[in-house]
Specification:
With about 300 residues, the protein is an alpha/beta fold. It is built from 13 helices and 8 strands. Bound molecules: S-adenosylmethionine. The site of S-adenosylmethionine has 18 residues, from helix 1.
Length: about 300
């Protein structure tokens, strides 16, 4: 990330989600309120951003967005809708199955923590992000009429400070309660050792029946994260943003990788399966898919 600036990829994800939520088909997939909140939080960032959001109602601007998507991240809007919905569903399932609090790591401008805190006022919800990104998030949350009292924001650079340290200083976090942790679109921006440290950390914090819901990129034999279409361009752009892709986990080795860190793999989803789950009417053969980011759920102990 560029010093003093919020994560550009977090802004990009929020913008992509607003685009997806404005599409009649993808709107059915996006979690309820996610698009509306993303729009409000983005709109509070700058005048340019607010203007761009106004242009979204223009069909020519949306057509331009689709061209941009085709060139840069083919299948990107669909992917964001599927990813957000899967994470939302998995967190709600974990809460139903007995986890008692939620910790979102690297939350960016995402509103999962906000929406869960609203829907589950008795459960503590924590969101941790890099201080520069969290400043932008707070700016966005400030324009909402109400911020739930059970939503706790903690700022930390996780390359400098451990998650355990952050949570141990948070008065509301109860380390004895089964917890659902979320790392969406985060691990690939951390070095391999930082990913291991984060997962090891979560494993020590999380009591039995806790869960981890996350997304990840695959890795080649040299451990380099693998991305699909327009790889060279995308890598270049992300480097320019100061957010290069740093790590991946080979999907075939995911179970073993998690086991070594004290987790049991429960679910592993690729894009085709997510499409079949949430948009069964769409044919995977003819739908452009962003098929290089995966989603997974892991558990601690008997979870
Ligand atoms: C691609 S964004 C994803 C945001 C959000 N999870 C989502 O999916 O919409 C990556 C997020 O990781 C956070 N991040 C990256 N490196 C970090 C670090 N060293 N410490 C804390 N957060 C970090 C950024 O601030 C940003 O919010």
């Amino acid at each position: 990330m560029r010093e003093g600036q919020p994560s550009k990829t977090a802004l990009g994800v929020a913008r992509g989600l607003v685009f997806a939520a404005a599409d009649p088909l993808l709107a059915k997939v996006c979690p309820p309120r996610a698009g509306d909140y993303a729009e409000k939080i983005l709109g509070a960032q700058s005048r340019t951003q607010a203007l761009e959001l106004k242009l979204l109602s223009q069909s020519w601007y949306r057509a331009l967005g689709r061209v941009h998507e085709r060139i840069w991240i083919r299948g990107g809007f669909l992917h964001l809708a599927l990813r957000k919905r899967f994470i939302d569903d998995s967190v709600r399932a974990a809460l139903q199955d007995g986890t008692e609090q939620l910790v979102v790591v690297g939350g960016g401008l995402d509103t999962l923590a906000l929406r869960i805190a609203e829907d589950e006022p008795s459960r503590p919800v924590f969101e941790i992000d890099h201080p520069d990104s969290q400043t932008a998030k707070r700016r966005g949350l400030d324009v909402l009429p109400i911020r739930p009292a059970n939503l706790h924001l903690e700022a930390a650079d996780l390359a400098q400070r451990s998650l355990r340290d952050v949570l141990s200083h948070s008065a509301r976090f109860d380390a004895t309660k089964p917890t659902v942790f979320v790392a969406e679109g985060l691990l690939m921006y951390l070095e391999h050792d930082d990913v291991k440290r984060l997962l090891d950390d979560i494993a020590t914090i999380a009591p039995t029946r806790s869960r981890l819901v996350f997304t990840f990129l695959s890795a080649d034999d040299a451990g380099r994260p693998v991305i699909g279409h327009a790889a060279a361009r995308t890598r270049f752009l992300l480097k320019l943003y100061g957010e290069p892709l740093r790590s991946g986990i080979h999907p075939d080795r995911l179970g073993e990788y998690l086991r070594e860190r004290g987790f049991a793999l429960r679910e592993h989803w690729d894009e085709r399966r997510l499409l079949a789950r949430y948009l069964p009417e769409r044919d995977a053969q003819t739908t452009p898919l962003l098929d290089w980011e995966y989603a997974a759920v892991a558990g601690r102990g008997e979870a």
